[in-house]
Design brief:
The structure is a single chain. The chain has 184 residues and is mainly α. It has 2 domains: 109 residues, Winged helix-like DNA-binding domain superfamily/Winged helix DNA-binding domain (Arc Repressor Mutant, subunit A), CATH 1.10.10; 42 residues. It is built from 8 helices and 3 strands. The protein has a 3-stranded antiparallel beta sheet. 18% of the residues are buried.
Length: 184
């Protein structure tokens, strides 16, 4: 089908291929080859490795992954909690209530499984440490800083209309930062 017709049939949006996310290309979890953070099944291994380090709450797992990726990616609760439930169902993790929160710990069966998957676990954790694979080669620290800048600008604009002086000051700050980056 001709490109123009394909777009018409897809409500004006470019055609999405297999594995593309609901908002276009590349979810931020899944296979690396397409700019994703984790290959199929790797998130489960990473979560299991994290609870092998020490028992954790779901939020602790989210923060640990976010920290290891220097803030450039944070898995959603809608990804982490089903993964934890699956690990529990597989017998790889146990859960107990602690202060109204669920605390997840690895089982002996989970440790055994993790040991058989050690090369995949090591590869996923190493890639998280370098963090460059899933961001088009951009270091996660830069991605995080850029996102922080965008959020700061959005938050400031939500406070109301900026005066001419405030607009000028923000533009000067951004110009100064740009020059400093260019000069290295």
């Amino acid at each position: 089908m001709h490109e123009r017709h394909a777009r018409r049939w897809n409500h004006g949006r470019p055609h999405r291929g297999p594995g593309d996310g609901p908002h276009g290309r590349h979810h931020r979890h899944g296979g690396r080859g397409s700019g994703r953070i984790f290959d199929h099944g790797e998130l489960r291994l990473v979560v299991l490795a994290l609870i092998a380090e020490r028992p954790r709450h779901g939020y602790d797992i989210i923060k640990a992954i976010e920290d290891r990726l220097a803030g450039s990616y944070s898995p959603s609760p809608g990804v982490i909690y089903p993964t934890l439930t699956l690990l529990e169902e597989l017998g790889h993790a146990t859960v107990e209530e602690s202060d109204g929160k669920k605390l997840y710990a690895i089982t002996e069966e989970g440790r055994g499984y993790l040991a058989t998957q050690q090369p995949a676990v090591d590869a996923a954790l190493a890639r998280m440490t370098t963090g460059h694979e899933g961001h088009g080669g951009r270091p996660p620290q830069i991605v995080r800083a850029m996102e922080n800048l965008k959020m700061a600008l959005r938050l400031r604009q939500r406070q109301g209309r900026l005066s001419d002086d405030e607009l000028q000051r923000i533009a000067e700050i951004l110009d100064t930062a740009a020059l400093a980056i260019e000069r290295g």
